[in-house]
């Protein structure tokens, strides 16, 4: 459903992302990890079409989004739900209203709002808090709200950039359980995090980036991995 093909992106002299190739199947849960400055956020922003790559292709469901015109960008974004480290909730609006903003942006007819907001609030366990304001909630609840807002437009994929970065371990753990549940219900998830404890616990595919390059991909198709071994054996 998503494919990056030899994607590179520089900022001045800094090669933030260099020759990155990977493919994510429908329903997969993929971590993108690496040290601070490795290029994780750049990968996320490239998929969001916030950045245009210098070279390479980014294909979502058969469409190369690097070729999309500016006026097509909103349509691309509507296929993608995003969750950030700092939640990005509007403080002067209730949780319900925060989620409704996403529906308004996606031009979903207003008569569908109530049912759809109820559905995602229930999914993230915040049904009782819909009329609360962000200041009345804890960090974990704000991240649940952000996830509900990402899900309400029914995107093909959820991108999360360090979603547990502002949470304590226990809260982070319960947020990860929630991401896991949403993935098991079929949603594709791509999560950038440097949080090793979480990655080890979740046992999902891990793509590791170092200085903009992929140094490890635990989920890469294995078919061609066996072959060279045989060839080596035969040569001996
Ligand atoms: N908008 C930008 N302008 C200039 N340099 C950037 C920009 N975004 C990222 N970089 C640089 O690209 C590299 C990768 O950054 P980033 O993708 O944010 O890494 P990570 O998310 O893994 O910490 C870093 O060296 C960073 O300073
Ligand atoms: Mg980052």
Put the structure in a nutshell.
The longest helix is centred in the last third of the chain and has 16 residues, at 169-184. This protein has eight helices and ten strands.
CATH superfamily: P-loop containing nucleotide triphosphate hydrolases
Classify the fold: give the CATH topology. Answer: Rossmann fold
Question: Strands of the biggest beta sheet: in what spatial order?
Answer: 6-7-8-3-9-10
Q: Write down the domain tally.
A: 1
The small-molecule ligands in this entry are: adenosine-5'-diphosphate, magnesium ion
Task: Please work out how many helical segments DSSP would assign.
Answer: 8
Q: In the CATH hierarchy, what is the class?
A: Alpha Beta
CATH architecture tag: 3-Layer(aba) Sandwich
Range of strand content:
25-35%
Mean pLDDT: 92
Considering DSSP H and I runs of 4 or more, what fraction of the residues is helical?
Answer: 25-40%
Give the overall shape.
globular
Sketch the major β-sheet. Answer: 6 strands, mixed
Rg, please? Answer: 19 Å
Helix and strand sequence: EEEHEEHEHHHEHEHEEH
Distance between termini? 41 Å
Alpha-beta content class = alpha/beta
Query: Any low-confidence stretches, pLDDT <50, length ≥5?
Result: 223-230
Give an account of the 3D structure.
By secondary structure, the chain is α/β, with parallel strands linked by helices. It has one domain: Rossmann fold. It is built from 8 helices and 10 strands. The protein has helices spanning 40-47, 73-77, 95-105, 113-123, 139-151, 169-184, 196-202, 223-235, and strands spanning 2-11, 14-24, 29-33, 55-60, 63-64, 80-84, 157-161, 188-192, 205-210, 213-217. The strands form 2 sheets. Strands 6-7-8-3-9-10 form a 6-stranded mixed sheet, with helices on both faces. It has a 4-stranded antiparallel sheet with strand order 2-1-4-5, with helices on one face. The longest helix is centred in the last third of the chain and has 16 residues, at 169-184. The chain is globular and about 45 Å long. The chain starts with a strand and ends with a helix. The model is unreliable at 223-230 (pLDDT under 50). The chain binds adenosine-5'-diphosphate and magnesium ion. Residues 11, 14, 16, 34, 36-42 line the site of adenosine-5'-diphosphate.
């Amino acid at each position: 459903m998503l494919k990056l093909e030899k994607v590179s992106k520089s900022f001045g002299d800094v090669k933030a992302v260099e020759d990155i190739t990977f493919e994510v199947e429908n329903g997969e849960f993929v971590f993108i990890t690496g040290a601070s400055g490795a290029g994780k956020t750049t990968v996320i922003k490239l998929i969001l079409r916030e950045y245009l790559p210098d070279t390479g292709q980014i294909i979502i469901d058969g469409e190369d989004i690097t070729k999309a015109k500016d006026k097509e960008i909103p349509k691309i974004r509507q296929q993608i739900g995003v969750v950030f480290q700092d939640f990005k909730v509007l403080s002067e609006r209730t949780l319900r209203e925060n989620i409704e903003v996403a529906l308004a942006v996606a031009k979903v007819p207003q008569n569908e709002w109530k049912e759809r907001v109820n559905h995602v609030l229930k999914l993230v366990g915040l049904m009782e808090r819909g009329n609360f304001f962000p200041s009345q909630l804890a960090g974990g609840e704000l991240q649940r709200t952000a996830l509900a807002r990402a899900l309400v437009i029914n995107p093909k994929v959820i991108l999360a950039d360090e979603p547990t970065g502002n949470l304590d371990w226990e809260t982070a753990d319960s947020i990860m359980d929630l991401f896991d549940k949403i993935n098991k219900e079929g949603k594709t998830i791509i999560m950038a995090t440097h949080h090793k404890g979480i990655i080890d616990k979740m046992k999902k595919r891990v793509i590791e980036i170092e200085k903009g390059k992929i140094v490890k991909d635990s989920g890469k198709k294995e078919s061609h991995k066996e072959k060279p071994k045989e060839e080596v054996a035969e040569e001996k």
